[in-house]
Amino acid sequence: MIKIVNSKNALESCYIALCQQFKKHKYLRVKIERESRTLKQNAWTFQAYKMLEAQGDQTASEYRNYCKYHFGLAIRAAKEPEFAEILKPMLLNLCYEDRLKAMSFVDVTSTFDVEQMISYINEIINHFHDKQLPEKVE
After folding, report:
1. What is the structure's pLDDT at 123?
2. How far is it, in rounded angstroms, from Cα 47 to Cα 31?
3. CB-based contacts of 55-61 (< 8 A; 24+ apart in sequence)
4. pTM of the predicted model, to two decimals?
5. Are the CB atoms for 38 and 114 separated by under 8 Å?
């Protein structure tokens, strides 16, 4: 069960769900994470993929997979070495095109915090400096 608690109502709902799960299982593991990426950052990336699609020779999904593979994996691996340790052998057995396709099934940017997402956006801007992209967000 994954719950995002960002309001008083969500907190109350989470508390009730935790109590129910504890009563049922007698054991829970709760992970409290820092602030994840912002909604503006999330919107920026999807707008960027769409803008790249309009200017390039790939779909928005293909640009998304390209960015996740070339920029996102390194950012996530820097903070989570175990992620890279598990994923690297799997990807090495694939050809480049299949590695890009595999990014549709790998959580990369969805786990990013605000700082990681800033790095990711900067990488996209630097790489596609010759393309029109949305105005930068922090």
Report:
1. 97
2. 31
3. 55/131, 55/132, 56/131, 61/104
4. 0.74
5. yes
